[in-house]
Amino acid sequence: MAMTERKHGFSLPSYLPNRIKVVCLRPLADDTYHRHLCGDYQKLIDSCLQRKKFTLRARNKSLGIVILVLLAAAILAAYKLRQDEPVSYSTAAVEKGEIKQVVEATGTINAVITVQVGSQVSGEISKLYADFNSRVKKDQVIAQISPALFEGTLAQAQADLQSAKANVSAAIANTLKAKAAEVQTKSEYERNLGLFQQGVVSQQVLDVAKANAESAAALVSASDAQEQQARALVQQKQAAVHVAQTNLDYTVIRAPIDGTVVARNVDVGQTVAASLQAPTLFTIAQDLTKMQVYAKTDESDVGGMRAGQKVTFKVDAFPRESFEGTISQVRMNSTVVQNVVTYDTIINFDNPDLKLFPGMTAYVTIPVATSKADAIKIPNAALRYKPDLPPAELESLYKQYGISGTGSPAEPSSGRSAGNAKSISRNDSQIVWKLVDGKTLEPVRIATGITDHTFTEKLGDLNGTVKVGDQLVTGIAQGRANAAPRIGGPGAVRTR
């Protein structure tokens, strides 16, 4: 807004009448001036300002209406142009080649035989003779548990054995003494018996001699029993010595197989406690040149896998390299995780360069079916395409080409016997849309075989024909997404 007549720093709008451009200055006590308009002229100025604001509002409103009208016209014109825009389709060509249907699985690499070496006795680790990646032989000493306590136990058991053997000797001597006494008392009894018959000795003397003889015989039996008990005690002490010696031998940890130490779980000075379960000291893999992959395969895939099948797999350590193996077995023991049932598939492979280590993750590819080398390959994207039309209109288009949308497939075209057609169910057939002359679409029902999830094998034509090089529609590249296709054939019209 233009300003005119500036007095003492105060400006008035230029559109005010000259008669109100008066500035009254009132002196103040502090020698400064307070600017203000004189009484009646203030109302005139306010009235002029209100009229100016109303004029500006009316002008802005008219401009907004004009802009809205132009915007609506542009949208309408764009929609009309869109209506008349031709439809362009994305297509993919039918190819010829081999198709391999595979099963993808993830597994873990393991040695064929892995042994966990533990300890049957408790004690402190005093020495270690093997470490990670050490190559060991069977019965090689790999660790030592402190033997002091076990040596003391063995010495005590050996002393007890010697004491038991001494008791056996004493028992033998007692037996011999008892037998000698038995002989003497028996002789006395026989002599007194003769004298009694001659009337030389009394009955009392005879009875005493007889009792002494019988007592000596009983003492011999008791001595024999004590001797047997002493001999049994010797055997018991010998067993205690054997146990003590065995426990002492267990303090020396030996490798049970030839192999490589892949894990060491103890250090020198660490105490191991063998109670209900033996502690694991080492893990030894027998032969890392022959290994296995434990692959988790889904229950829906195991039906196509057999022992002896060749497979390939990759690992993250060598992403550009592919390794080969052979299925040895599919184990029947299932695993259920979050309602998904999987089975362990064991894959044997050679590892001569020791490039692959136990525990690596393997990404396994198992071929379960292979087509002919010259099979006709239908792009899977073409099998998924379907025009965006009402069901009734789409069914009518199918009938125009002899295709029953909900019933069984129609009779096969030339080159395919009726017997073969009957062997293919509706679930094995698909409808594809062939682009003819770059302008019209033609629906064709085909029989499908195996798939590699990119291409699907065509087993035959059921309604119409699809050959190598034909362009099959995979989607709409330009135009309205719900535009109806131009259907080829006699009497065909473009539907809207």
What's the structural blueprint in terms of helices and strands?
Blueprint: E1 3-7, E2 10-13, E3 24-27, E4 33-36, H1 39-84, E5 88-93, E6 95-97, E7 100-111, E8 114-118, E9 123-128, E10 135-136, E11 141-145, H2 148-198, H3 203-250, E12 252-254, E13 259-264, E14 271-272, E15 280-285, E16 290-298, E17 310-315, E18 318-337, E19 340-350, E20 361-370, E21 375-379, H4 380-384, H5 391-400, H6 418-422, E22 429-436, E23 440-451, E24 455-463, E25 471-478
Antiparallel strand pairs: 1-2, 3-4, 5-25, 6-21, 7-16, 7-20, 8-15, 9-11, 9-14, 10-13, 11-12, 13-15, 16-19, 17-18, 17-20, 18-19, 21-24, 22-23, 23-24
Helix pairs in contact: 2-3
Explained architecture:
- It is built from six helices and 25 strands.
- Mean pLDDT is 81; it is low at 1-10, 19-40, 406-426 and 489-496.
- The protein has four domains: 3-68, no CATH class; 147-250; 284-370, Elongation Factor Tu (Ef-tu), domain 3, CATH 2.40.30; 375-478, Beta Barrel (conserved putative lor/sdh protein from methanococcus maripaludis s2 fold).
- Strand 22 (429-436) and strand 23 form a beta hairpin.
- The chain is α+β, with helices and mostly antiparallel strands.
- The radius of gyration is 54 Å and the shape is elongated.
- It has helices at 39-84, 148-198, 203-250, 380-384, 391-400, 418-422; strands at residues 3-7, 10-13, 24-27, 33-36, 88-93, 95-97, 100-111, 114-118, 123-128, 135-136, 141-145, 252-254, 259-264, 271-272, 280-285, 290-298, 310-315, 318-337, 340-350, 361-370, 375-379, 429-436, 440-451, 455-463, 471-478.
- The strands form seven sheets. Strands 7-16-19-18-17-20 form a six-stranded antiparallel barrel. It has a five-stranded antiparallel β-sheet with strand order 6-21-24-23-22.
